[in-house]
Automatic annotation (TrEMBL), chains A, B, C, D:
It comes from Pseudoduganella aquatica. This is Redoxin domain-containing protein. Pfam families: AhpC-TSA (PF00578). One of its GO terms (molecular function) is antioxidant activity. Residues 1-154 form the Thioredoxin domain. PANTHER family: PROTEIN DIPZ, THIOL:DISULFIDE INTERCHANGE PROTEIN DSBE.
Length: 174, 174, 174, 174
C-alpha cells in the first residue's frame, strides 16, 4: 500500500479551472484533498462532489488544496473532456480538476492505476510533507474527513530542507 | 395555456427502455406522468429523476404510466443519445424514456416547445382521458404530486365510446 | 380489522389547539388525517409530526382535517398534558391535538385500544363518509399518503342522509 | 470571553449514564466535547444530539470525552430529571449527561451562566490542557467540528507535571 509513503505525482492529460498545471510537489506544505470522480458516477454526484465542495468551503485555500481528478475507467466515449467541461459548469465546480491520463494498456487511467484506487468516488488526503495519509473508496463521513484534515493541518510545516529529505529519502526536484 | 386541454402527442426521435414506441393516445385510460429532464441538469438528477422513480414504485403500471422525456435545450453536443444511454444505465432508470425531437429552428426541442415548458425538470400529469392537468417546472413536493395522481386515478375511466372520439379525432380500437 | 368500517368516535380527556372539542361525526364530509403520537417517541418527532404538518400545509382545511392524537402508552408520569403543551409550543404544532383518554385497565389509552394501534406514530385516514380507510404504524412515504388522501378527496361527498346510512348499516348517533 | 482560557469546572446537580461524577480536571489530557441541550428544544433533538452521538462514534473514548449538559432555562416544571431519564432512554443517549445546577437567582442554570451560553444547543470544545477553545450556539457543520477536534487531538499532550498543576490554578505555561 501507498499509505504513509510519498504520494506519486499526478499524471494528467488536461487541467480545468486553473490557469496553469498544478503539481503535488508545488503544493508541498499544504494539505491536499484529491477527489477522484467520474461525471456519470451517481455516488460521485450525490456525495463525492458535494463533499469536495464542502472541504473547499471549510478550509482556507492557503492551508488545504482541493483538486478533482476525473478518472474515467468506463464509458470513455461519453465522458469526454468537453462533456466534463459542461458538467463542471452545470454543477458549479470551482476548484481545479485534472483529467487523469488515459492508459494505452487498458481502461483504467494512469493516476488511478498508480494510486491503486478501487473506483470512484475516492478521497485521497496528502499531508504537508507530500505523503499519502488516507485513501478511501466510497462514502466517508464529513466528521471523519474533517478530523483527518484537522490532524494533518496540525502537523508542523516541515522546513524546505526537511521536506527535501524525509525518512523516505531525498525528494529532489519536488 | 394547455392545462385542461388535450395533451399534444409526443414528438420523439428515439425511444429507450421500451421495445416499441409509446404514444399518449395508446395510454388513454391510464394516468401519465411525463417527466422532462436533461441528463446534466443538477435539479433533474437530485430531485426530478428520484421523484419519477418514486412515482413508478408507488403506483401500479396498469394505472400510471411514467415516461421520461429527454428535452435537451443546451449543450446538445454532449447530451447525445449515446450519453443518455450511459446515464440511464448508471442511474438505473428503468422506465421508458423518449428523446425529444430536435427542432430545426432553434435549441428547444419540439415537445418541450409544444408544451411550453420553462426548463428542466418539469413534471406533466395527464389524466385518463388524455387531458393535461398539471405542468410544473422545478421541485414539486412528493405529497402534492401523490395527491394529484391520487385524484386523477379516482376519475372514473371514460367509457370506450367516449375515449374513442375525443377532440383529437376518433381513436378506433383504443 | 376496522378498515372500511365506520371509524369509532375518539375518546378524549382534553383538547388542545381548538376552542371546542372536535368529533369525527362533525367532520363527516371531510377527509380526516388522525396522527397518533407520543411527545417522547423519536420516530414521531423525526417523521410523524413533520408529515402531519405537511398534510396540514398541502390540503385545504375545508377538505382535510388534521388531528393529532396524543396516545401515551408508556412513561405516563412524564408525558403529562402540561408537558405536551410545552412540546406543542416548542415544535410549533398548530393543528388540534386530542389527549387520548387513559384507561383504568392498563397503560394503553382508550382510542388507541379501540383502533388497535400497534404503537406510535400511527397514521389513520378516514373518508368523507366516516369510514376508516388506512391505518399505518411507522413511517409512510409522503407520496403514498398524498395519493391516498387524493383518492379519498375525489370521492363524491355523500349527502347527510347517505352518510347516516351507508352500506355498513346505519351509523346512529355519529 | 472565555475562549482560550481555562474552562470553568461544571456545576452539576446530578449525573446520568455514569457510575460516578465526572470533572473537567479529571478529563485533562483528553479533548472534551461538552454539548449543552434541553430535551424539548427542537434544534437539540434534530441536530445537536445526533452530532454529539456522531462525535462519540467518530473518536476513541480514550482521546475524546463527550458529555451532555442538560441546561434547562425554560419550562423547568416539565423538563425534570425524571423526564430527562425517559428522554435519554427513548433517544438512546449513551454518553454521560450532567444536569446543570439550577440557579437561585433566575431561570438560567449555573454552568450555562458561567460559560455565557446564548441558548441550546451549544457545543463547547475543551483542549487537552483544559482550555476552552470553541463555543458555538446553534448548528455547526460536521466537517468543521471534525476539523476542530482533529486539530485539538494533534496537540501534544501536556506532560503529567504540567497537567498536575493545572486545576484552574496553574494555568501559566500551557
Amino acid at each position: 500500500m501507498l499509505i504513509n509513503h510519498p504520494a506519486p505525482e499526478l499524471q494528467v492529460s488536461a487541467w480545468l479551472n486553473t490557469s496553469q498545471p498544478l503539481s503535488l510537489s508545488a503544493l508541498r506544505r499544504k494539505v491536499v484533498a484529491l477527489y477522484a470522480f467520474q461525471m456519470l458516477c451517481p455516488g460521485c454526484v450525490s456525495h463525492g462532489i458535494p463533499q469536495a465542495k464542502l472541504i473547499r468551503e471549510s478550509f482556507s485555500a492557503d492551508e488545504v488544496a482541493v483538486i478533482g481528478l476525473h478518472s474515467v475507467f468506463e464509458h470513455h466515449d461519453v465522458m469526454t473532456q468537453r462533456a466534463l467541461e459542461v458538467f463542471m459548469h452545470e454543477y458549479r465546480i470551482n476548484f481545479p480538476v485534472a483529467v487523469d491520463m488515459p492508459s494505452s494498456n487498458g481502461p483504467v487511467p494512469l493516476t488511478m492505476e498508480q494510486y491503486q484506487l478501487r473506483g470512484t468516488p475516492s478521497l485521497l488526503l496528502i499531508d504537508r510533507a507530500g505523503k499519502l495519509r488516507f485513501s478511501h473508496f466510497g462514502r466517508a463521513g464529513d466528521m471523519q474527513v474533517g478530523a483527518l484534515i484537522g490532524q494533518l493541518l496540525a502537523d508542523p510545516v516541515a522546513s524546505p530542507d526537511n521536506a527535501a529529505c524525509s525518512e523516505e529519502g531525498c525528494a529532489i526536484g519536488r
